[in-house]
Amino acid sequence: MADTAIFDVDGTLVDTNYQHTLAWARAFARCGVVRPLWRIHRGIGMGGDTFVPAVAGDDVEREHGEELRAAWVEEFDRLIDEVQPFDGAHELLQEVADRGFTVVLASSGKTQHVERFLDLVDGRSIAAAWTTSEDAERSKPEPDVVQAALDRVGASSGVMLGDSTWDVVAAGKLDVPTIAVRTGGFSVEELTGAGAVTVFDSLVELRERLDDTPLARPSR
Fold first, then answer.
1. pTM
2. Per residue in 101-150, pLDDT tens?
């Protein structure tokens, strides 16, 4: 039985995926690169190191990679005041902690962004630890950030909670099951196809049905 709940942050606890999509589109435009918004969105959840070549190709990565990542930060910072927590985010974290699970927030975001999002969900009062981009050499879909979260609290086993296919793939590489929510804009079929064990429409629904998931009360 798992002893640790590993929560993704962007798109799972806070509503950021569409701001990320716009920020990346504007960053690409600054470098003369045009990609459709739907294609950009499907890459959200990857880290910037893997996102650029996956969405725009290796040539764009070689020519503009670092410039694009810097431009993305600037563009996202212009939108960050619009970011809000999802309904029930704090309550879900608290419920999972009350069930005896160690709560870790596993983000590969920039430190300044993660710190801000922690405040939005009052995560510091519940989470035993959290990660940022500084804690993982490779970002999702590689499993480094999930492993860093487990290592941070000395966990023996965990359950991932995420919103993107990349969360599911990264956790799956460590044989960590993922409970997915559709808050990031990915479909049920995409999430289950990536390996999610179950999918919920919202954090509120997930909290109401926790006993139907790997985060059921130990007595169940």
1. 0.94
2. 999 999 988 999 999 999 999 999 999 999 998 998 888 899 999 999 99
Q: Which of 154, 174, 173 is nearest to 104 (CA)?
A: 154
> What is the domain class of 17-82 according to CATH?
mainly alpha
> Which token pair is 11?
């798109």
pLDDT of residue 220: 42
Q: Measure the CA–CA gap between 206 and 183, rounded to whole angstroms.
A: 11
How distant, in Å, are the alpha carbons of 9, 153, 162 from that of 106?
A: 7, 12, 10
Q: Are strands 198-200 and 102-105 parallel, antiparallel or unpaired?
A: unpaired
User: Is 4-15+84-212 a domain of CATH 3.40.50.1000?
Assistant: yes
Transcribe 29-58 into DSSP letters: HHTT----HHHHHHHBTB-HHHHHHHHH-H
Pairing of strands 198-200, 178-181: parallel
Segments of the chain assigned to CATH 3.40.50.1000? 4-15+84-212
Give the pLDDT of residue 48: 87
Name the token pair of 136: 């993982």
The string of pLDDT tens digits covering residues 164-186 is 999 999 999 999 999 999 999 99
Residue owning tokens 């606890």? 13
Residue 50 corresponds to which tokens in the numbers above? 């893997």
Residues forming beta bridges with residue 198, ordered by sequence position: 179
Q: Dihedral angle at the C-alpha atoms of 4, 49, 81, 190, nearest 10 degrees?
A: -60
